[in-house]
């Protein structure tokens, strides 16, 4: 249980107290409704992570029925909760549990709404004004957990949906609220998630205040901060017991490169210096390469999604668009077949999971639309170089089998991208793009309309746009 416990606003001790209160029914109806949301959210998450391959079929069926029952109870309790009740810690915890539940379900808009309720409740309780951490008693433990959970949900979802954040700036550093606990291996992953959110808070400031002074220096510092986070990730990945959470670290690495691509993309827009575009493209490739690796891990472990059904939504829906969109723009600009093939491989991998979740199906639809748009660019480009490592399904999807094949040389990863010059050949086997250079090695003049496209800010609303089949910027 401790191996699977995600540290947040409902710690072990609080979960036990809530569970006992539900069994005995010794609280008022409003409090019990809040407890139902918190306890059933934890129960569903923990049951999902139980290994099922060694369970007998009848027990597996009962576990699946229990999960569905808990999810139904959460929906029911969310409809019964008194949203106008006086602010309290338990109400705050219920809102956050509901937000995490909706995020796991792939409903990011409702998750953002519940996070906004949580943020307002938190402010009403004046928790955002708490100073430096001096005491870790039982109440403070729950408050600190609520603070960092609300913080990272507010920042991540606001960037994802291009909406203003609801939680004001905190007086203390959010990552200081997360304790690394050797008895809870996922605590290291949670701490990195909060570090990501600190980056996204600054991104939101820039997106919401376009005329802020010193934006170039701010985005440059963000890039340096991202490189520091990479060193932190590598350190935790090599430490016991944190290194045992293999799948979570795979998702964290994908999130890191996707967020790095987003930060570099923002820096490029702020400084209006097109020479920074290549670093952004390289980071985007690394994000999608790691997404392919995650898909391969899932395919190799037939039982993985049985006990990690929320993994895809947590991975794909938190950072779905920036790296894919950057490579899309690069293919439009340079007809880079390697990037096109990588996009196709990711899209082919996502297609295996479309029946599992409506939001995954929407992402697949979006990725497929981008591929359809750039397909003529690639197929009409003279002498395209065909990658040798693209699996048959992806190659067939983009029509590579009919193209002539050439051998392309894999690059060495730029040492300034993540501070790690020891990347393996397998990790960086996609060559750098030939942006700004045509097939005759001549510099291509800048096309401002294309740069307007490249400078666009990706957001989750594209997933539900009917205009995508004709124009990815239609929404």
UniProtKB/TrEMBL annotation:
Keywords: Membrane, Nucleus, Transmembrane, Transmembrane helix. One of its GO terms (molecular function) is DNA-binding transcription factor activity. The chain crosses the membrane at residues 311-333. InterPro entries: AtrR-like. PANTHER family: TRANSCRIPTION FACTOR PDR1, ZN(II)2CYS6 TRANSCRIPTION FACTOR (EUROFUNG). This is Transcription factor domain-containing protein.
């Amino acid at each position: 249980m401790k191996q699977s416990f995600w540290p947040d606003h409902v710690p072990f001790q609080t979960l036990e107290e809530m569970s006992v209160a539900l069994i005995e029914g010794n609280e008022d109806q409003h409090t019990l409704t809040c407890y139902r949301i918190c306890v059933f959210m934890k129960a569903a998450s923990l049951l999902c992570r139980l290994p099922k391959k060694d369970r007998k079929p009848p027990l597996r069926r009962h576990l699946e029925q229990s999960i569905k029952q808990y999810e139904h109870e959460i929906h029911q309790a969310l409809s019964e909760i008194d949203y106008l009740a006086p602010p309290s810690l338990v109400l705050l915890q219920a809102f956050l549990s509901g937000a995490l539940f909706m995020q796991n379900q792939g409903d990011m808009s409702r998750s953002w709404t519940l996070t906004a309720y949580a943020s307002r409740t938190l402010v009403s309780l004046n928790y955002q004004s708490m100073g430096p951490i001096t005491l870790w008693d039982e109440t403070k433990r729950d408050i600190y957990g609520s603070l960092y959970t609300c913080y990272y949900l507010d920042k991540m979802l606001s960037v994802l949906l291009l909406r203003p954040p609801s939680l004001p700036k905190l007086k203390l550093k959010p990552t200081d609220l997360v304790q690394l606990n050797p008895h809870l291996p996922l605590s290291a992953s949670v701490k990195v998630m909060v570090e990501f959110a600190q980056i996204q808070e600054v991104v939101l400031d820039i997106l919401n205040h376009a005329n802020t002074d010193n934006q170039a220096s701010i985005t440059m510092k963000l890039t340096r901060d991202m490189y520091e986070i990479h060193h932190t990730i590598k350190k935790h990945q090599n430490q016991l017991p944190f290194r045992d959470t293999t799948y979570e670290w795979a998702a964290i690495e994908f999130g890191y490169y996707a967020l790095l691509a987003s930060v570099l993309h923002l820096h490029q827009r702020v400084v209006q210096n097109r020479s920074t575009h290549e670093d952004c493209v390289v980071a985007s490739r690394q994000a999608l390469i790691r997404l392919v690796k995650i898909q391969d891990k899932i395919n190799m472990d037939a039982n993985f999604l049985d006990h990690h059904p929320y993994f895809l939504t947590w991975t794909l829906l938190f950072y779905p668009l920036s790296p894919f969109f950057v490579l899309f723009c690069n293919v439009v600009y340079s007809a880079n077949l390697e990037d096109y093939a990588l996009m196709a491989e990711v899209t082919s991998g996502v297609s295996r999971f479309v029946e599992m979740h409506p939001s995954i199906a929407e992402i697949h639809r979006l990725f497929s639309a981008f591929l359809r748009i750039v397909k003529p660019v690639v197929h009409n480009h003279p002498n395209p170089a065909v990658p040798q490592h693209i699996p048959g399904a992806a190659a067939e999807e983009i029509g590579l089998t009919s193209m002539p094949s050439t051998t392309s040389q894999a690059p060495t990863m730029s040492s300034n991208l993540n501070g790690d010059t020891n990347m393996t050949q397998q990790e960086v086997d996609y060559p750098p793009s030939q942006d700004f250079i045509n097939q005759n090695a001549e510099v291509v003049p800048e096309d401002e309309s294309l740069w307007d496209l490249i400078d666009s800010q990706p957001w989750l609303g594209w997933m539900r746009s009917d205009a995508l089949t004709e124009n990815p910027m239609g929404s």
